[in-house]
Structure formats: structure tokens, C-alpha cells
């Protein structure tokens, strides 16, 4: 049984937990405290408001331990705001949050909440059939280092990437009813153990 945590400071926490708990041999748990980082095999950084989440990470003193765990190989998946938390660079912002993934992201790249949209894309590493993608005030990756694997682009914008133990998506698989991305992440976790 794998235990996959979902950072539960703000955002789409329950939606990710619901998806995880539909998978065999996976237990999804909400993570709010530093000690809980020692009880999980992997972590999802959910969508939400990246500035608020970054502030809460600092206020709850989670940043140092979380950064150390991810650097040491803890599998992590950031969706939307979670992608921004992982990025080493954020366009037009002097500071980053965790600063672990060799990507430069643009926040709210597609515009406001009213500019949210859905589409489909074939992502062969994840599924043999096109996947539904939901973008809500989403970022995209403007630049990625050569050792970052690009999994998907939409309209020439990078929207899914992987680097070592880190996965990041600009979209929200937890809102689609499709479990393929959660299965893909769980497989990454199993292969690491």
C-alpha cells in the first residue's frame, strides 16, 4: 500500500484525495504538518493560489523540510499552482517558492478565471487515448532546461513536464473524472520504491 499525500494548505485537495482513493493499493492523505512528510511515499501539490500556498508553506515552516525531502527523491507532482511552487523561475517575479524544477513558468498565462478552458491531448507516456485537460487561470512553461522532459504542449505552449522525481502539469486532471494521470504518478512512485 502506497501513501500519497496531498498538500492541504489551500486549493483542490479533496479532488486529488478522491482520485487517489479510487486507485488500488493507494491511500491518499491530507498533509498539513512537517511530521506528516515522513509518513508518505509521494506528495501532490494541488492547484489553488500559488502566492497564498507559498506564504502558508513559509508560515507553517514546511518549506525547508519539503525542499529537503524532494531533493532527496520524494516523488512530487504539482498541478497548476503546484507547478508554480516547483519552478525555479517565475516570469516577472523576483522570487520563487520551492525552486526545485529547472523550468520558468508564467503565472495566469491564459488570462483570468473567465479565460479558463478545456481541451484534449494525446500524452503517450500517460495514456494511449487522448486525455481531457482542464485549464483554470493556468500557468505554462516558457523555458525548460535540457534535462526536463516535455510531456505535452497545447498551442505550442509547454503544459506538462517531468524532471527526475518531479512531475508538473499546468492543467487539473483531478477535475476531469479521468484517473490516468493519477495512475501514471502512482506508477512513478512504485518504480522509485
TrEMBL record:
Instruction: Select a single GO molecular function from the record's annotations and give it.
Output: pyridoxal 5'-phosphate synthase (glutamine hydrolysing) activity
The record places the active site at: 80 (nucleophile), 172 (charge relay system), 174 (charge relay system)
| Gene3D superfamilies, sorted | 3.40.50.880
What are the UniProt keywords, alphabetically?
Answer: Glutamine amidotransferase, Hydrolase, Lyase, Pyridoxal phosphate
Q: Which domain of life is it from?
A: Bacteria
Q: Does the keyword Lyase apply?
A: yes
Query: Which Pfam families does UniProt cross-reference here?
Result: SNO
Pathway(s) the chain acts in: Cofactor biosynthesis; pyridoxal 5'-phosphate biosynthesis
Q: Which InterPro entries match?
A: Class_I_gatase-like, PdxT/SNO, PdxT/SNO_CS
Q: Detail which positions bind L-glutamine.
A: 48-50, 107, 136-137
Tell me its EC number(s), please: 4.3.3.6, 3.5.1.2
The catalytic activity, as recorded, is: L-glutamine + H2O = L-glutamate + NH4(+); aldehydo-D-ribose 5-phosphate + D-glyceraldehyde 3-phosphate + L-glutamine = pyridoxal 5'-phosphate + L-glutamate + phosphate + 3 H2O + H(+)
Function statement: Catalyzes the hydrolysis of glutamine to glutamate and ammonia as part of the biosynthesis of pyridoxal 5'-phosphate. The resulting ammonia molecule is channeled to the active site of PdxS.
The record's subunit annotation is: In the presence of PdxS, forms a dodecamer of heterodimers. Only shows activity in the heterodimer.
Q: Which family does it belong to?
A: Belongs to the glutaminase PdxT/SNO family.
User: What's this protein's name?
Assistant: Pyridoxal 5'-phosphate synthase subunit PdxT
Q: What is the lineage of its organism?
A: Bacteria, Bacillati, Bacillota, Negativicutes, Selenomonadales
Q: Which gene encodes it?
A: pdxT
Amino acid at each position: 500500500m502506497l501513501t500519497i499525500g496531498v498538500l492541504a494548505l489551500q486549493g483542490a485537495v479533496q479532488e486529488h484525495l478522491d482520485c487517489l482513493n479510487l486507485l488500488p493499493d493507494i491511500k491518499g492523505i491530507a498533509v498539513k504538518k512537517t511530521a506528516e512528510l515522513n509518513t508518505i511515499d509521494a506528495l501532490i501539490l494541488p492547484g489553488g493560489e500559488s502566492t497564498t500556498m507559498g506564504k502558508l508553506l513559509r508560515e507553517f515552516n514546511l518549506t525547508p523540510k519539503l525542499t529537503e525531502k524532494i531533493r532527496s527523491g520524494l516523488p512530487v507532482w504539482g498541478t497548476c499552482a503546484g507547478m508554480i511552487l516547483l519552478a525555479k523561475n517565475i516570469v516577472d517575479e523576483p522570487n520563487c517558492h520551492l525552486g526545485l524544477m529547472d523550468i520558468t513558468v508564467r503565472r495566469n498565462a491564459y488570462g483570468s478565471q473567465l479565460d479558463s478552458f478545456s481541451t484534449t491531448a494525446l500524452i503517450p507516456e500517460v495514456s494511449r487515448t487522448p486525455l481531457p485537460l482542464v485549464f483554470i487561470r493556468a500557468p505554462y512553461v516558457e523555458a525548460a532546461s535540457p534535462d526536463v522532459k516535455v510531456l505535452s504542449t497545447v498551442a505550442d505552449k509547454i503544459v506538462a513536464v517531468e524532471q527526475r522525481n518531479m512531475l508538473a502539469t499546468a492543467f487539473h486532471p483531478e477535475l476531469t473524472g479521468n484517473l490516468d494521470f493519477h495512475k501514471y504518478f502512482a506508477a512513478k512512485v512504485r518504480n522509485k520504491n
